[in-house]
Amino acid sequence: MSSSLAAEVPWPPSVEDFYLPPIVAGTDPWFTKVTLLVWVAVAALIIFFLVTYRDPKLVPTKRQWIAESIYGFVRNSVAKDLIGHDGVRFAPYLTTLFCFVLLTNLFGIVPGIQLSPNSHIAFPAVLAVISWALFNYIGIRQHGFAKYMKNSLVPPAPWFILPILIPIEFMSTFIFRPFTLAVRLFANMFAGHMILLVFTLGGFVMLNSNAWLAPVSVLSWLMAIALTFLEAMVIVLQAYVFTVLTASYVQGALAEEH
Amino acid sequence: MYLFAAEGGAEHNPIIPLWQEIVVGTVAFALLCYVLMKFVFPRMEQTFQARVEAIEGGIKRAEAAQAEANQLLEQYRAQLAEARTDAARIRDDARADAEGIRQDVLAKAREESDRIIAAGKEQLAAERATIVRELRTEVGTLAVDLAGKIVGESLADEARRKGTVERFLTDLESTGAR
């Protein structure tokens, strides 16, 4: 038993562990575990919200209350607090973003799934590009292109520093913002999955290599469980951070001065 | 199998997105956005708004009811005060009336008693006068009869003729009066 396991345990964990073979041969990479999970997340969210909000009541039912609480949380604690009263009109997008990131992240620790689509940079990149397009569009529509560029690029500083500041501002606002947004989420999910792989597979490797290491492999699995809880925190935090940063960029684009 | 793939070198670079996944992510997320932002969250805003209006409407209704109740209370108080004033006035009037009636009755009674007393006195006086007159006649007759018996002849005509008895009695009265 243990020797057969030893042969099958892939060690050490590598990048290729994130690229599972396609579910139906020949569809790679259109139909893999991660793309399926993305569709599952989208379907689950649509069904959840449509079912809970099929027949809204003034006095909410329990499920309606849950759906309203999620929306109310993003609407009041993120959109309104960060963007101001104007922020309510961004609440639907921010809530959709928050729910999507949270659920796709959550797949990383759901037993039996344990792989987050966000550990593939393509999905965070799509969301980051949307956020980038959103805040630029909002800013240009609010101020006009020239004034928006001036607001974004020219900080109130002495004129002789501007040649240094303007390129820095340009890079930070228009290049690094979407890049960091995408990479922050991707790296967290990637690293989280990698850590869980190391401790879980490591336990098997140690158990198989030497019977005396069995207690250590048990410890390794316990660590994997503990780190799963840590991962749960990271998952919620990263979903929140992504939403908050998007809201904050929109707020910056709407603001009058730099 | 995975092991070989891993050893096979960097077949995948984790920082380079797969374009197929970008397409899948874009389409899936766009679908999610479309459904949630068109059919769910606007309705939530409507529900929130309706809830706010329901609460505000309730408060407004309660305020109106409160105002009406206050107005009614004020009205009742005014009516009650008016009724009290009326009652007091009526009591005062009644008291005054009673006093007036009492005075009238007393006055009438006094008048009546005075009248009765006066009538009594008059009657007494009249009776007295009558008695005195009768007595005088009788006394005169008696005295003349007596004197005639004593003297032995009839003095009646003599006495009537000369007014002796009358004079005597008048003298007697004036003496008694003195």
TrEMBL record, chain A:
Q: Does the keyword Lyase apply?
A: no
Where in or outside the cell is it found?
Answer: Cell membrane; Membrane
Q: Does the keyword Cell membrane apply?
A: yes
Top-rank taxon, per record: Bacteria
Stated family: Belongs to the ATPase A chain family.
**Protein name, UniProt field:** ATP synthase subunit a
SUPFAM superfamilies (UniProt xref):
F1F0 ATP synthase subunit A
Q: Which parts of the chain span the membrane according to its record?
A: 30-53, 90-109, 121-138, 159-179, 185-207, 219-241
The protein's GO terms of the molecular function aspect are:
proton-transporting ATP synthase activity, rotational mechanism
Query: Which InterPro entries does the entry mention?
Result: ATP_synth_F0_asu (IPR000568), ATP_synth_F0_asu_AS (IPR023011), ATP_synth_F0_asu_bact/mt (IPR045083), F0_ATP_A_sf (IPR035908)
Species of provenance: Phytohabitans suffuscus
- UniProt KW keywords: ATP synthesis, Cell membrane, CF(0), Hydrogen ion transport, Ion transport, Membrane, Transmembrane, Transmembrane helix, Transport
One CC-aspect GO term: proton-transporting ATP synthase complex
Please give the function described in this protein's UniProt entry.
Key component of the proton channel; it plays a direct role in the translocation of protons across the membrane.
Tell me what topology the record assigns in the membrane: Multi-pass membrane protein
**One Pfam family from the UniProt entry?**
ATP-synt_A
From TrEMBL, chain B:
InterPro entries in UniProt: ATP_synth_B-like_membr_sf, ATP_synth_b/b'su_bac/chlpt, ATP_synth_F0_bsu_bac, ATP_synthase_B_chain
Q: How does it sit in the membrane?
A: Single-pass membrane protein
Q: A GO molecular-function term, please?
A: proton-transporting ATP synthase activity, rotational mechanism
Q: What residue intervals traverse the membrane?
A: 22-41
Q: Does the keyword 4Fe-4S apply?
A: no
Going by the UniProt record, its keywords in alphabetical order are:
ATP synthesis, Cell membrane, CF(0), Coiled coil, Hydrogen ion transport, Ion transport, Membrane, Transmembrane, Transmembrane helix, Transport
Its GO CC terms? Answer: plasma membrane; proton-transporting ATP synthase complex
Q: Which Pfam families match?
A: ATP-synt_B (PF00430)
* Origin: domain of life: Bacteria
Q: What is its main location?
A: membrane
* SUPFAM superfamilies per UniProt: F1F0 ATP synthase subunit B, membrane domain (SSF81573)
Where is the protein localized? Cell membrane
The coiled-coil segments of this chain are 55-93
Role noted for this protein: F(1)F(0) ATP synthase produces ATP from ADP in the presence of a proton or sodium gradient. F-type ATPases consist of two structural domains, F(1) containing the extramembraneous catalytic core and F(0) containing the membrane proton channel, linked together by a central stalk and a peripheral stalk. During catalysis, ATP synthesis in the catalytic domain of F(1) is coupled via a rotary mechanism of the central stalk subunits to proton translocation.
Describe the family membership recorded for this protein in Swiss-Prot or TrEMBL.
Belongs to the ATPase B chain family.
Quaternary data? F-type ATPases have 2 components, F(1) - the catalytic core - and F(0) - the membrane proton channel. F(1) has five subunits: alpha(3), beta(3), gamma(1), delta(1), epsilon(1). F(0) has three main subunits: a(1), b(2) and c(10-14). The alpha and beta chains form an alternating ring which encloses part of the gamma chain. F(1) is attached to F(0) by a central stalk formed by the gamma and epsilon chains, while a peripheral stalk is formed by the delta and b chains.
NCBIfam families, per database record? ATP_synt_b, PRK05759.1-3
Protein name as annotated: ATP synthase subunit b
Q: Which organism is it from?
A: Phytohabitans suffuscus
The taxonomy runs: Bacteria, Bacillati, Actinomycetota, Actinomycetes, Micromonosporales
